[in-house]
């Protein structure tokens, strides 16, 4: 299960790099198809990072102690609201959470019907 999260993050990295390069070339060359492709890649990045967050939250809530992060920051003794805070308890989870937040904001801006290439590129 942890492999799914790692693979999703690696694919998100590739998709986000493509999105950034496609936006730059799309805006400079005034290629609307390339800008649409970059937006699609941004949405894929959002989905992939979200999948990684869901995998980690699922492991935390199911007490999957085979994952080192879960074993380090959670316990079976904690009641239900507290395991959610384990997502950002350690450096790895915190970085994942803080990577997820701007990706979600970029996704919301890209989905706006009035979002131009310049609006999304300002992120």
Structure description:
The protein has 123 residues and is an all-alpha fold. It has one domain. The chain contains five helices and no strands. The chain has helices at 2-29, 32-61, 68-73, 91-111, 117-121. The radius of gyration is 17 Å and the shape is elongated. The protein starts with a helix and ends with a helix.
Summarize the structure.
The chain is mostly helical and 123 residues long. 73% of the residues lie in helices and 0% in strands.
Q: Roughly what is the average pLDDT, rounded to an integer?
A: 87
Total helical elements = 5
The amount of beta strand, in percent, is: under 5%
**Number of DSSP E strands:** 0
**Percent of residues in helices:** over 70%
Unreliable stretches (pLDDT < 50, length at least 5) are: none
Please provide the ordered H/E string of secondary-structure elements: HHHHH
Overall 3D geometry? elongated
The largest sheet, given as strand count, sense and whether it forms a barrel, is: none
From the N-terminal CA to the C-terminal CA, the straight-line distance is 32 Å
Computed Rg: 17 Å
State the domain count: 1
**Structural class from helices and strands?**
mainly alpha
Element layout with pairings:
Blueprint lengths: L1 H28 L2 H30 L6 H6 L17 H21 L5 H5 L2
Helix pairs in contact: 1-2, 2-4
Structural features:
123 residues; mainly alpha; 5 helices
């Amino acid at each position: 299960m942890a492999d799914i999260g790692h693979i999703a993050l690696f694919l998100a990295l590739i998709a986000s790099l493509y999105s950034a390069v496609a936006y730059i070339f799309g805006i400079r060359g005034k290629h609307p198809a390339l800008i649409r492709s970059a937006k699609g890649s941004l949405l894929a990045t959002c989905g992939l990072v979200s999948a990684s967050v869901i995998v980690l939250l699922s492991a935390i809530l199911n007490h999957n102690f085979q994952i080192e992060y879960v074993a380090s920051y959670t316990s079976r003794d904690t009641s239900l609201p507290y395991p959610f805070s384990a997502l950002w308890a350690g450096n790895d989870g915190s970085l994942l959470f803080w990577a997820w937040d701007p990706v979600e904001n970029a996704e919301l801006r890209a989905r706006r019907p009035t979002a131009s290439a310049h609006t999304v590129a300002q992120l």
